[in-house]
Amino acid sequence: MLLNYEDVSSVKKIVEVEIPAGLISQESQRVTSEFSRQVKIPGFRPGKVPLGVVRSRFAKEIQEQVMERLLPQTFNEAIADKGLEVVGDPHLQHVDPVIEGAPVKYKAEFEVKPQFELREYRGLAIDDPKIEVADADVDNMIERLREQASVYQPETERGLEENDFAMIEMTTSGEGIDAETRGGHFRLGEETPLPELHEALRGKKTGESATFEKTYPDDAQNESFRGKNIHHEVTLKEIRVQEKPEITDEFAQSTGGWENVAQMREAIAADVRKHRELEVRRLKQTQLAELLLAAHELEVPETLAEEEVGRSLQNYARFLVSQGVDVQKAEIDWRKMRDEFLPEAVKRVKRSLILEQIAKKENLIVSDVEADAQIRRAAKEADRDFAEVKHQLRHDGGYEKLRMSLSQDKALDLVLHEATLRSA
To answer: Considering just the CA atoms, what is the radius of gyration of the chain in Å?
Structure first.
């Protein structure tokens, strides 16, 4: 029974609810019966424990089970006719103690998706950049393919020259640090934080050595080097020269299965155009999102904002791991990162809420077939079983979230289709 309803804000509400004594008694009897069938007590056959014994032995557990069932049930019933879409779990501000034969009152604060007036979303004016693919774009892609197909031949007759690859062994020493020897390689002339190394070995032949010193700044990447003068002894172990393949029909056939150079250039040009079309589409979507955000004033529930920030932090952590960073040991101020990610997270939530409203208004429904197709693609990319992934999504609520996300994609597609394009 709803006793009181308070609009704290467009997204935050408070309700005061009374659970009738009769309902508590009824649920208590049901739970007690369930306990009597399940518990094992010495001296009683399984399933034959008297209800009185069960009530005496498990009074606290029964009471907890009753309230765990009745609190969400009565909460949902109390707000059923309010037309609200609750996000997250309600926060109980107060719950009366359970006294036999008496009703229980409780007060709960909860968040909902905001209700707002949907502004015009058709005919929004956005830039339409012209897509061009020049010969130079194709040449650059072919050059990348030549780089990937290169071989690196040892050079023993001459000294180290520009663009040669140097295989080295270097020993570093200095005041307060232990001497350390490491192997490595670099390309002469490339941008580097240690240009002195390049100059020291320029013109040297395989087997020759050089020394140099460097005073490191206070913000040097290597903490033990900061503010110190470090001595470097380096030996050139090997010189390798890059040999790129010529651009011939044979190269086209071996690289991408094309019949000849002309077909290779045509295919690369088409691929470059496709990628630029995707980039332009993303640019248009970004423009539309900004226009929709500017046209709509709405408050974002803290629950949704925190969920979005959490996803951002998880993605950032995964990126760090992919770069070889041990996130458990790295000195990362996650609270600061959360504060930095929050503004963009709030914008993404607002965008989702607006697109969700558009999808509802336009009746943009996502079928099970469409949802399953998306799950199948994701499962394939993750090398997981489709049925397993779908079952997990069904179990944790992710399936409906996926459908909602896909309906929002449809809404954005509709807004883009109806947009007014202007030449950029």
So the answer is: 34
Cα–Cα distance measured from residue 93 to residue 108, given in angstroms and rounded to the nearest whole number: 5
Cβ atoms of 185 and 152 closer than 8 Å: no
> For each of the chain's 424 residues, which pLDDT tens digit applies?
899 999 999 999 999 999 999 999 999 999 998 888 887 787 777 777 788 877 888 888 999 999 999 999 999 999 999 989 999 999 999 999 999 899 999 999 999 999 999 999 999 999 999 999 999 999 999 999 999 999 999 999 999 999 999 999 999 998 888 889 999 999 999 988 889 999 999 999 999 999 999 999 988 888 888 888 999 999 999 999 999 999 999 999 999 999 999 999 999 999 999 999 999 999 999 999 999 999 999 999 999 999 999 999 999 999 988 888 888 888 888 999 999 999 999 999 999 999 999 999 999 999 989 999 999 998 998 899 989 988 898 888 888 989 999 999 999 999 999 999 988 6
- Angstrom distance (rounded) from CA 415 to CA 400: 23
Say which residue the tokens 């200095």 belong to: 174
Distances (CA, A) of 181 to 160, 225, 229, 232: 22, 15, 17, 10
Token pair for residue 415? 């807004």
Write down the CATH number for the domain with range 257-423: 1.10.3120.10
Cα→Cα distances 93→17, 169, 372, Å: 12, 67, 41
Looking at CATH, the fold of the domain delimited by 151-243 is given as Chitinase A; domain 3 (3.10.50)
Question: What is the C-alpha separation between 356 and 292, in angstroms, rounded?
Answer: 12
What does the alpha-carbon distance between residue 423 and residue 383 come to, in Å, rounded to a whole number? 43
Q: Which fold has domain 2-112?
A: Alpha-Beta Plaits (3.30.70)
pTM of the entire structure?
0.78
